[in-house]
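Q: what does this look like with LLP bound?
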Amino acid sequence: MRYFEYRDGTLHAEEVNLAALAQEVGTPFYCYSGAALRHHYETFAAAMPKGSLIAYSVKANGNLAILRQLARLGCGADIVSGGELKKALAAGIPPTRIVYSGVGKTVGEMTRALTAGILQFNVESEAELEALNNVALSLGTRAPVAIRVNPDVDARTHAKITTGTKQSKFGISWNRAHQVYARAARLDGIRIVGIDCHIGSQIVELAPFEAAFTRIIALTRDLRAEGLPITSIDFGGGLGVAYRADNAPPAEPSAYGAMIAALTRSLEAQLIFEPGRRLVAEAGILVARVIYIKETETKRFAILDAGMNDLLRPALYDAYHEILPLNGPKAGTTVYDVVGPVCETADLFAHERSLPELKAGDLVAILTAGAYGAVMASSYNARPPAAEVLVEAKDWAIIRGRADEDALVQQDQLPPWLEN
Ligand code: LLP
């Protein structure tokens, strides 16, 4: 991790001393490296075939500062809600670079997206197709549509983040694709522009992608032969990152891009990609302080001031995140369960992890936390979620302050009969 490195015995984000930063902003906080974000975007974009649209999947990290930085690099957006539409536009991402995915787009959301002039709707059901047709007709226009087809390929990732099999709620089933396209072609409010797929997330091998894309490309050729104007192919996101140094390294964007170039060689099409995790995961860490060390008959717990309300991935997916002490580097010799303060057994960041000896007051960094970290935070246990900080060389800025407890109290309202 070049962007988060030990210098003079302390972990730094670029040129910023994280222990000093913790003193200023308080813990816990997410810290992102602007240089890392640029590096991951540029590496990904350069590896895709020329002319591809990179539509960053906003759900991975929707902070306005992250979106603005990506917008400046020419990145587009893959959105899944009216809220993400608002954020992407506010960050300066042109509507013509926005694709809209998701199984539950409401009429209100579709109206706003169509009025904004987005590039395409990735339609996930026949009911949605009808609803979008009606929205477009009422606005006197045609909605640009790609049908999300479910290639029925197992992404071989965690069950909670696989999306491309028959059992999944996502996309149109493989066997119905032709009928749905034929229906779309008959609707006056729909303009067919492309095809779309997304088979899952944190996929570390190329094989599932290759199997899915081969099917999607074959279907594209068939649909074109039927006279349907499929001009764009959206391959979704899903390329994984290395959460553990001792696992086989995930496929690199270069290999992924080469595979796609080979598959699409004889095909004229606007290619679209929706990477999320790959652009932001390694660009962020979560910094927390050890509140207590607690020893029981069977365990030694390091209790942090960050909890599952700040970073849900370990609790929800048994996800592994490396943990480093801010003072170091030091080798691990003591075994800890690293936990948060939330009143749930699932509030566990690391199970029986060998770490350098920790004591109360020490600072630690939970790595690879830039994707699906802050965005999935909540105020469970009435805990204001962690602040977010963006670093640029030796500068830093708070890009989301910690909500205070008063705000948590004020967001609730008493009904008149309980006021006094
Ligand atoms: N496109 C679509 C339609 C998606 O549903 C997703 C992610 C992406 C793109 C971006 O996938 P990525 O490149 O980030 O893998 N919270 C989970 C991940 C959920 C992913 C949902 N969809 C986690 O923390 O692992």
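The first strand starts at residue 4 and ends at 7. The pocket of LLP is lined by residues 57, 59-60, 78, 101, 161, 198, 201-202, 236-239, 274-278, 313, 317, 372 (CB under 6 Å).
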